[in-house]
Amino acid sequence: MLETETLTTAAALNQATRGLAGAGIERARSEATGIWASVMGGETTTIWLAGDKPVDPDALAEFWRKIARRASGEPLAYVAGTAAFRLLELKVGPEVLIPRPETEGLVDMVLKWGTHRETEDWGCALDLCTGSGCVALSLAAEGRFSVVTATDSSHQAIALAMQNERMVAHDTRLRFLVGNLFEPVAGERFDAIVSNPPYLTVEEFAKSDPSVRCFEPRMALASGEDGLEHTSAILAGARRYLRQDGLLALEIDSRRSEAVLEAAGEAGWSDVCIEADIFGRPRYLLAKHHNGSFDA
């Protein structure tokens, strides 16, 4: 697989495909092509049109390095350096969680709530544990918020999220702040608070697939012995930061939906519901800061 002689694009892709397939990668051809695009740029069609052209040796060496990383089990998104999320193509690295399809549904919940607002301007949104910034940037690009603020305790994550902001077209004011949960926004209030916080138990993280356990950041996944450390902290603090009739939207572990509902009640939330994700699993907790009926 680590061929050093001059190769054409087609020959390099064929060798890489065989190497990935031998390492147990199911979509070896597709992934080899995606990794090639991350090195050389261009769309798949243009890559194959250049199939008979020789490859620059430096680019080929970088391609083999990335193929070796993927063959070792490193997630494709980290190897390629990007991940798709809703309408966006975002930079990702080992300092942030790779965006999941379930989290796209979390954005849907907030956008649906926004369309029921009586005002054109949906006000201010807060995204906790922003990571790559996928949720905050989607709300800025697709919603009608005047300001979206995003916090994360990781300096590296915030730096990457700010890089992603420069790649996204939007008319919304964005703020990226370093700090744990609500600490960077003390004294402020928001119309919507949204978060995909860590929600695995320590034991679940330790037993997770090696592609997760060995490569993705533990701090973005594990949340104490019961998996509820971050979720409970958000539930306990959010009402002090949420305006009247504001929305709290959290992604949760489907295995602990009842425990999260109980924690919400203990924190004083009375207007709460659980919504399912695209796979039919209880995935999102939605709560409003008033005593009326829930209609997101």
Order of helices and strands: HHHHHEEHEHEHEEHHHEHEE
Q: Estimate the global geometry from the Cα principal axes.
A: elongated
CATH superfamily of the largest domain: Vaccinia Virus protein VP39
Question: How many structural domains can be distinguished in the coordinates?
Answer: 2
Summarize the amount of helix as a percent range: 25-40%
Q: Cα distance, first to last residue?
A: 53 Å
Question: Care to describe what's here?
Answer:
With 296 residues, this protein is of the alpha/beta class. The protein has 2 domains: 9-72; 93-288, Rossmann fold. 39% of the residues lie in helices and 18% in strands. The protein has helices at residues 9-22, 28-40, 44-49, 57-71, 76-80, 101-115, 134-142, 155-165, 202-206, 210-213, 229-237, 257-266; strands at 82-85, 88-91, 124-128, 147-152, 173-178, 190-195, 242-251, 272-276, 282-288. The strands form 2 sheets. Strands 5-4-3-6-7-9-8 form a 7-stranded mixed beta sheet, sandwiched between helices. A hairpin with a 2-residue loop joins strand 1 (82-85) and strand 2. Helix 1 (9-22) packs parallel to helix 4 (57-71) and helix 2 (28-40) packs across helix 4. It starts with 8 loop residues before the first helix and ends in an 8-residue tail after the last strand. Residues 291-296 have low confidence and may be disordered.
